[in-house]
Specification:
The protein has helices at about 20, 130-140, 160-170, 190-195, 255-270, 370-375, 380-400; strands spanning about 5-10, 15, 25-35, 40-45, 65-70, 80-95, 100-105, 120-125, 140-145, 150-160, 175-180, 185-190, 200, 205-215, 220-230, 235-240, 245-255, 275-285, 295, 305-315, 320-330, 335-340, 360, 415-420. With about 425 residues, it is an alpha+beta fold. The chain has 4 domains: about 5-105, Thrombin, subunit H; about 120-190, Baseplate protein-like domains (Phage tail protein beta-alpha-beta fold), CATH 3.55.50.10; about 195-330, no CATH class; about 350-420, Membrane-bound Lytic Murein Transglycosylase D, Chain A (Roll). Strands 1, 2, 3, 4, 5, 6, 7, 13, 14, 18, 19, 20 and 21 form a 13-stranded mixed beta sheet that branches. The longest helix is centred in the C-terminal third of the chain and has 18 residues, at about 380-400. It is globular.
């Protein structure tokens, strides 16, 4: 069998400089984050010639593209390339002796004010996707949105950079946001955690590991306050798992029942996802990608399906290549919505969805969220109703002078909908 090799192809301002830097490169690191922060890349170089702090020193606006290349990796003919993406250079550091240079890049478009300028903005009559489309356009990047969109009546962006505001917005609605290759990528993390494991990692193939299991961090339920504008009252939304002995009480408030349900469940997931985490170091492989699920075996009662939060690819000057994976045990939130309206000791449970499809005629004051809560047990399922009735909903919106319904934001009394079973 021919020798196994790992290497990195580097393009600098669109020019392939791989051969040029071969004698200088001492290490390469790429951190692939599923959500919450930008991906990064670091090139570690010897600087004995002084070129990297002299004639070759990067300037603002320079960028690199990195591709991990594997040759005969697991067997002869197993040749692969993995595109790490596009990174604007944002960090330079130098040390010695021996004289070394480190060039760091970030997947954020730093040649715009995307992650620099703190802004104040009031977003009205839009949606999560609508806000992100505007932010992406202003940053000069694309948007790939595969999660469920949520309507937003009004939302304040207060003294926040667009990148921080976008990350927090997605987090509030249980959406993952990633910056990759000149794009903002948004997806529903819960949907990804429901997927089957892409592969299995056995303990015998792990070079090192650490596991943290918090016995007291897990919550059985969550409560949040919201304002009922029609009644001018502050009410409480509660969602329970199990018997609900440990309740997470949120200090933030929501603007509506819809907002309360989304934010409460998102925060509950955020806390409970950190109850069991695992970090491992394994032989490098381009199959390790953040946001995938992996089955961990050989760890006794710590076995299970884990979601990859981040992967750090490390490459030395030779063919040494390792990956460090940070993961959490996947969880699914299954419970009952309690106290969609709560007054004293009186609670109401969400209506359970019918096993078969039925019809519903919209009345004044309805929203798809309200209809979904009543008929499917959760307002967050409103897109199921929209998708099943998009033609009818869009036709009604146009007949009332709208160019579109904005994904079901505009609905009208008298429209008959099919409620999916």
């Amino acid at each position: 069998m021919k020798a196994r090799q790992s290497s990195v192809i580097v393009k600098y301002n669109d020019k392939d400089i791989t051969k040029t830097i071969t004698d200088y490169i001492e290490g390469f690191e790429y951190k692939d984050n599923a959500s919450g922060t930008a991906d990064t890349v670091t090139l570690k170089l010897n600087n004995r010639s002084g070129k990297w702090s002299g004639s070759w020193i990067p300037i603002q606006g320079d960028y690199v593209e990195a591709i991990i290349k594997l040759t005969n990796w697991k067997k002869e003919g197993d040749n692969r390339k993995f595109n790490c993406g596009y990174f604007l250079i944002d960090d330079l550091s130098y040390s010695g002796p021996p004289s070394q240079a480190s060039i760091g890049g970030i997947s954020t478009p730093i040649n715009t004010d995307f992650n620099v300028t703190k802004k104040n903005n009031t977003w009205k009559s839009t949606s999560v996707k609508g806000i992100l489309e505007t932010i992406a356009k202003n940053a000069g990047v694309g948007l790939f949105f595969s999660g469920q969109d949520y309507p937003i009546e009004e939302l304040e962006q207060s003294d926040q950079e667009d990148v921080t505001f976008a990350f927090n917005l997605c987090k509030s609605y249980n959406l993952a946001m990633k910056l990759y290759n000149k794009k903002i990528v948004v997806f529903d993390q819960t949907d990804y955690e429901k997927k089957d494991a892409s592969y299995t990692i056995n303990r015998e193939n792990v070079e090192s590991y650490s596991v943290n299991r918090s016995m007291t961090r897990e919550y059985d339920g969550v409560t949040i306050s919201y304002t009922d504008a029609s009644k001018n009252q502050t009410l409480t939304y509660k969602f329970l798992l199990k018997n609900g002995n440990r309740i997470l009480k949120l200090n933030e408030t929501a603007e509506s029942l819809q907002d309360a349900e989304i934010k409460a469940k998102a925060k509950l997931l955020e806390h409970n996802r950190q109850c069991q985490t695992m970090s491992i170091s394994v032989k490098g492989d381009t199959k390790y990608i953040s946001s995938k699920c992996v089955q961990m075996d050989g760890f006794g009662k710590l076995n299970g399906k884990y979601y990859i939060d981040s992967v750090t690819h490390n490459k030395d000057a030779g063919s040494g290549y390792t990956c460090n994976l940070d993961m959490h045990l996947t969880i699914l939130v299954k419970g009952v919505t309690v106290a969609t309206v709560q007054s004293g000791d009186t609670v109401k449970k969400a209506a359970e969805s019918s096993a078969a499809s039925k019809t519903y005629t919209i009345v004044s004051g309805d929203t798809l969220w309200k209809i979904s809560t009543k008929n499917l047990g959760s307002g967050a399922k409103y897109m199921q109703i929209y998708n099943a009735n998009s033609g009818v909903i869009e036709s009604a919106a146009k007949s009332h002078g709208k160019s579109s319904s904005s994904n079901g934001h505009w609905i009208y009394p008298g429209t008959t909908l099919t409620i999916p079973g």
